[in-house]
Amino acid sequence: MSRILRASGYVALTIQMLWGIGQVYLLSPMGSGLPQVSVGAHAHFGILSILAVVTGFAIERTALTGTLRSVAVWGFVVGQWALPATILMEMVAPPLLITAYLWGALLTISMAIIAYGTITAPEAEGASPRTTPGD
Fold this sequence. Notes:
Elements: H1 2-27, H2 36-58, H3 66-89, H4 100-120
Helix pairs in contact: 1-2, 1-3, 2-3, 3-4
C-alpha cells in the first residue's frame, strides 16, 4: 500500500510540474493570465503530492495493518486529488467548494491514523541510521 501513496505522489507531482509550466506561460507577457484560484490549487496540489511521497515511505515504519492502514492510504490519496480539484471547481460551481471540508477532514483523519501508527510502532534496533562522533 505504501507504493500506492508514492505512485500517487509522483504522478501528481508530474502533473503539477506540467501545470506550473502552463501557468508560467499564461502569466508571461504572451499569456492571457489565469484565475487566482488556479494558483492556489496548484500550490495545494504540489504540497499534498510531496506529502504523499514522504508518507508513502514513512508508513512502512508504522504499526498500521488492515483497515486502519487502508483508511490511512486511501483517505490520503482521495484527499490529495479531491481537495485541489474542489478548489478549481470554484470557477465553475462555487457551491461545490463546501466539499473541501470533507476532503480536508479525510486528509486530517489519514494523518492522525499515521501519527497513531508511528507512535505505537515498536522501536526496531538498527532501523534508523546512527552516527558516531567520528562521522
